[in-house]
């Protein structure tokens, strides 16, 4: 049963990840990333972290990718123009590099963990109480710092994206250089 | 039948590599950003797999913080895109070469 | 089929039939109730008391011509109405409708997904509703649709914050994200509507904004942006958006009832002694009755208040509701630590 779910959602995650990097239309790429993240959330549940799965859907797909879509619609980012001949070498070079990376990672991981057996799953691991106990005891300082980081990010984002006084709003239909 | 942990780790490695291809090949800034998010997601999956393997909840904690940091980074990054677009009317990274040698 | 799988299937079937019946019912109720409020009759020709009106409307939608604009983004245009249904059809899974009962020799908890992070799952699945609006507006290739959809999604995301903070306040005294435990807490103590009135108010206002109902329905208002993100949709696709809206209303009301009004429990009646199936039936009926009261509230408010302007709407969400919710959070946390709650 677990194998069936893993195979299905792993395949979904792979296919939509390829769509993310391959599709020229940014909106389609973002929606493919939504599918990838939801599939990964299911894999989180299989790995015993239902809390993180819910958080991933709530934060990542429910907020961050919506923000992506907003910016894409605001700036009217159209289909990506195809690369010229000069960049084909760059494309193939990076594909080769990534394949090399994937190959070496897979080889390393397979050698190390092909017969690793996970520790028995205890209630403490998956329960919310376990997560919150850790979060508010050992990891209290990082938790508070994350709060500060988010505040800084909010202020920074609203400052960088502000419109200077007197400046006209961004007009996406203006002629692009 | 249970899935071996190596399955999750290999999947995460492949997702990461796909993200690397996207980050290196695409011209649009948004697409590069999406590939980076994909890489972050793959790293989270690896962390979750190792957390399960070792029975150590520290991995779950790191994922929690990584999610929050990814949110902050996405917000600031997209704000930067808006700022750049306002100045240069383009998101194409081949054209945003003002600081190149 | 194993007994637990059978039980799950039965509970899901029960919930789904209730949810799918909501749309035709609301189509009728939404015209009859305000008619009485406005001293007129409303639809009373189709069937007894006009009850078949909803089904007649549904049949009409099926027969209408389906029109896709030529320059619209076809796959996304067709996907958006389906996405509108997904949050509503998944969030009911965590709402409990009865205690732990014994039916035919098996003990089962009367909730489809008895999760430790039930509330979080609800909020996560509800937050996926934004995509329907965003994609509908974007794919229509229409200025008014795009504006309506950006406004609608910005509104939904902003009020999600206030909603989530109000929900967190309701969780603090019970100390759990499991909705069954929250209902059990309310059985032992007072209903949380009485102990957290400000949180309830914030929740209700945010729920109105989340479901794009008046007074927050600017994005889909007919007199404003044509019909906002719904402009290019007709017939069955439009009906799917509205079914999604009504079902979201129902599930958000169910969450409100569970968090603030004791869920499936009745304040002074304890029907624990009855057989399992009877307890399930009574619990479900009580829950449905309370949800119906909230649906009436939704309809009542819709036909009473004028519409908010968009900047007033955003100002309300960020500058009024969010600070109120945080205030409630501080008060509730202090009271819980002091042992009062």
What does this structure look like?
The complex is a heterotrimer of chains A (177), B (101) and C (341). By secondary structure, chain A is an all-alpha fold. Chain A contains seven helices and no strands. Chain A has helices spanning 2-22, 26-46, 50-75, 88-113, 123-126, 128-137, 140-160. In chain A, helix 1 runs antiparallel to helix 2 (26-46) and helix 2 (26-46) packs antiparallel against helix 3 (50-75). The N and C termini of chain A lie far apart (55 Å). Chain B has 101 residues and is mostly helical. Chain B is built from three helices and no strands. Chain B has helices at residues 5-25, 29-54, 58-88. The longest helix of chain B is centred in the C-terminal third of the chain and has 31 residues, at 58-88. The radius of gyration of chain B is 17 Å and the shape is elongated. The mean pLDDT of chain B is 90. Chain C has one domain (70-337). Chain C is 65% helix and 2% strand. Chain C contains twelve helices and two strands, in the order αααββααααααααα. Chain C has helices at residues 3-37, 53-63, 74-91, 118-127, 130-139, 143-171, 179-188, 192-195, 197-210, 235-260, 276-302, 310-337; strands at 100-103, 106-109. A two-stranded antiparallel ribbon of chain C has the order 1-2. Chain C is globular. The relative contact order of chain C is 0.15. At the A-B interface, helix 1, helix 2, helix 3, helix 4 and helix 6 of A face helix 1, helix 2 and helix 3 of B.
Q: How large, in whole angstroms, is the Cα Rg of chain C?
A: 21 Å
User: Strand order, biggest sheet of chain C?
Assistant: 1-2
- For the record, the CATH architecture of the domain at 1-79 in chain A stands as Up-down Bundle
Largest sheet of chain A: none
Please tell me what the overall shape of chain A is.
globular
Quaternary structure annotation: heterotrimer
The total of helices of chain A stands at 7
Low-confidence stretches of chain A: none
How far is it from the N-terminal to the C-terminal residue of chain A, by CA? 55 Å
Average residue pLDDT of chain A: 86
User: In which range does the helix fraction of chain C lie?
Assistant: 55-70%
Approximate strand percentage of chain C:
under 5%
According to CATH, what is the class of the domain at 1-79 in chain A? Mainly Alpha
Could you name the CATH topology of the domain at 1-79 in chain A? Four Helix Bundle (Hemerythrin (Met), subunit A)
Secondary structure tally, helices of chain C = 12
Give the N-to-C terminal Cα separation of chain C.
Answer: 44 Å
- Portion of residues in beta strands of chain A equals under 5%
| Total of domains of chain C | 1
Structural class of chain C: mainly alpha
